Amino acid sequence: MSLDLRKWLDTVDEMGELKHVAGADWNLEIGAISALNVRKDENSALLFDAVQDYPKGSRILTCSTSSLERIALTFGLPQKSSAVQLVSAMRGMLPTWEAGFKDFPQQTVESGPVLENVRSGKDVNLFALPVPRWHDKDGGRYIGTGDAIITRDPDSGELNMGTYRIMVHDEKTTALYISPGKHGRMHYEKYFAQGKPCPVAMSFGHHPLVFRTAASEVPSGSEYRFIGAVQGEPVKVVTEEITGLPIPADSEIVAVGWVRPGHTKMEGPFGEWTGYYASKERGAPVVDVERIYFRNEPILLGAPPNRPPNDSTTFNVIKNSAMLWNALDKSGVPDVRGVWMSDVGQQQLVIVSIKQRFHGHVKQAAHLACQNRPAAYHGRYVILVDDDIDPSDIKQVLWALCTRSDPENDIEIIRRAWSTPLDTMIRKPTDKLLNSRAIIDACKPYEWFDEFPEDIKLDPELEKQVIGKWGTILNL
Ligand SMILES: Cc1cc2nc3c(=O)[nH]c(=O)nc-3n(C[C@H](O)[C@H](O)[C@H](O)COP(=O)(O)O)c2cc1C
User: Fold this and answer.
1) pLDDT at 1
2) Residue of the nearest CA to atom 23 in ligand 1?
3) Residue 476 has what pLDDT?
4) 337 and 276 share a domain?
5) What average pLDDT score do residues 390-417 get?
6) Domain range holding 248?
7) pTM of this structure
8) Ligand 1 pocket mutation pick from 142, 177, 182 by most atoms within 8 angstroms of CB
9) Same domain (yes/no): 379, 282
C-alpha cells in the first residue's frame, strides 16, 4: 500500500468511482456540488481542476471516502461489504493495527514529493491555492477541512495529528480552531503556559488514510504508527527545517509556522458537522505561516461538513461504531451484539444492542458507551436495545424505543459532560462547555423479561413458503 494520493486516485478511477470536474467556482460552487453529491448513496469522489480564477493543475478532491467501496480501499478492508460488514471488518482489524504500533514508527527520509516546490517568507501565498468558500454563511475561505495538523507535546515530545478546521485570514496567516480537550489544543496551551510559541505543520492534501486517521480517536501520539500498521509499512516523513516537525513525505501540500501566545483573530462562522453554524464568530489562535511545501499540480483535500449526510458521515459510522464496540469489549461489557453510531446523529446518537445476562447489564453498557472516547465528546443520546433489534435499522430502534421503554423509569440523565462551542444547545459558547446526556433503556425489563408481551414474528418457514408461492405479487 502506498501513501501516494495519486495512486489511490488511479485505483478509484479504475473502480469507476472518480468524477473529474472542470471549471467550478471556488466560491460556493465546489461546496454545493460536493454537498449534493454525498446526498446520493452511490456517489463518486470528485476531483476539481481548472477551478475558476486558477490555472489548470490547481486541484481539489472532495467526497474521497464517502462510499463503502472507497472506505474499504483506503483501509485495505474487503470490497463489496455492507456497512454492517465493514464495521465488523474494521473492528476485527483494530486490535491487529494497534498491536502493530510498535513495529511501525515513522521512518525519516531525506526527501520526498512534498519538497518539489518550496515557498518561504514573502513568497508564501495561501491564496495561490484554490481555497473554497464552502457554505454561504462561512466567515472566510477554509483551506483546512480534510487536513492533518501536526503538533508536538512540549513536555513529553509526543506527536499528534488531528483534523482541525483552518480558515485563511490572508496570504500568510490562518486561524486554527481546536475544540477544548482535543490533543492539538492541549499542546499549544502547554507551550503558551511556558510563554513560548507552538510550532505547527499543516498538511492540506494527502492520502485519505492520513486524513481519516487524523480525524479519528486513535490513541494519542500514535497516528503515524496507526497509518503504518494499516498500510503495513512505516510512514515516510521528512524533518521539516523550520519547525523540526516530521511531515509526510508524500503529502501534496504542507504549510508550517507558529502559533503565538495571545495572538488571536476572529474566526468563523463555519458550517459544521452538526448541520449548523453553531460556534459563530469568535477569537481563535493565528498561525503565522513561514513556509509552504507542495507537489507539482498539488491536490487540496476537502471534506466539507454539512447537515447529514455529509462528506464524513458514512466513514464516521463505520469507524466510530467499530471503535466504540471494541472499547466496550475492552471495558468488560459482555454480550454486546451491535453498536451503531448513526449517520444522522453521529456521536450524538449511539445505539447499542446487547443480549441481557444480568440485572444492571443494560446500565453498565449504557454508561460505558456514553463516556468512552469515541462517543464521549459532544454526545447526546445513548439507546440500549435487545439483541433482536438491528441497531443499524433506525425503524427497528424507534419501535423498540416506543414499545420497550417507559420515559419515567427508563431515561436517565447524566449531567456536566464534555461538550464544545459547536453544541447547538449551548446558548453562549463562552459561558460553559458542558452538556447533559440521556441514556435510554429500550430493552425489555430484565426482571420480567419472560412475561413481556410476545412480539409478532413471521415464521421463517412460512415466510419462505409464501415467497415461493406469492413472490411475484410481492415483487420478491
Ligand atoms: C471534516 C472534519 C473537520 C473537523 N474539524 C475539527 C475542528 O475544527 N476542531 C476540532 O477540534 N475537531 C475537529 N474535527 C474532529 C477531530 O478531527 C477529531 O476529534 C480528532 O480525533 C481530533 O484529534 P485529537 O483527538 O488527536 O485531538 C473534525 C473532524 C472532521 C472529520
Assistant:
1) 64
2) 162
3) 86
4) no
5) 97
6) 5-301
7) 0.96
8) 182
9) no
